[in-house]
What we know:
single chain; mainly alpha; about 50% helix; 3-methyladenine DNA glycosylase
Amino acid sequence: MPLPLHPSRDSARRVLAEDEWLPRARAHAERVARFAEPFVARRNAGKKHPIEDFLFTYYTHKPGQLGRWHPGAGTALTGNAAEERLGWKHYRALTDAEREAAGIEADATAVVLDLPAYAAEREETIRFCALILRGTMSRPANFGCFGLHEWAMAYRSAKFGVRHEYLPLRLGADGTDRVLEEHRIRCTHFDAFRFYTPDAAPLNELQPTRATQRDLEQPGCLHANMDLYKWAYKLGAAVAGELLMDCFELAWRIRAMDMQASPYDLTAWGFEPIAIETPAGKAAYVEAQRGFAAEAAVLRERLTTALAPLEAALA
């Protein structure tokens, strides 16, 4: 178990010995490789995958960055392998007082994230993440959208084209348009809404903007729950690698369901459609959406816990 240290907003609170943290770092690298290596191979071969590329192309965190494990804020690492981290931005050696409190020998390598410096550099990001995460937690979930944002992005494709030009539309252009026109469209997520075609945007009952994002995000939204991965990597080294990958893997599974419910035909890729234009398809969509929302609620709570030392460092 990690050794406790004297709590302080400026100090480490736990210490991991090399034989504790190195296996975690290796396990993280293996966990990332399962997703990153096929993506890199496809990219090098000039190939695309409509689901499995998304988390590496839409989001800005690169495979190499994702593969770098961090213990999270307040956890110090010891041992020879930790010395490399002194060359990583914002890591520092423990002070003599911190070493003494943890019973670490004076000549042993021990490093920790320099939390005050880290928080000061990312203050705007930290405060925005806190607003989004806590605001989303405070609102009721909407389970009546049926994934129509993807249909809005393909609305009147004969006029505007489609985002995924290499994928066929399951119901054709006219059928896709009819589905959208026959439903109530009430997307709350700006980063989905901004990709609507110009003719689809006025059909949405809400008109989300970046400025209103903090007021509209709600916990039933697939994209808001995928974005837990974004908030995790934006908090960076202050978030433990295990939490980061838990968010990543949830986002991965949500993306698959999101595209199955889209107007695109992905059967050639091994994904059966969720026909949201039918009662059975709607029911299947809502069931999966509720399950993802429950998983996301746990991760959102864990992320707000990870935020606490960062916010304390800014106080």
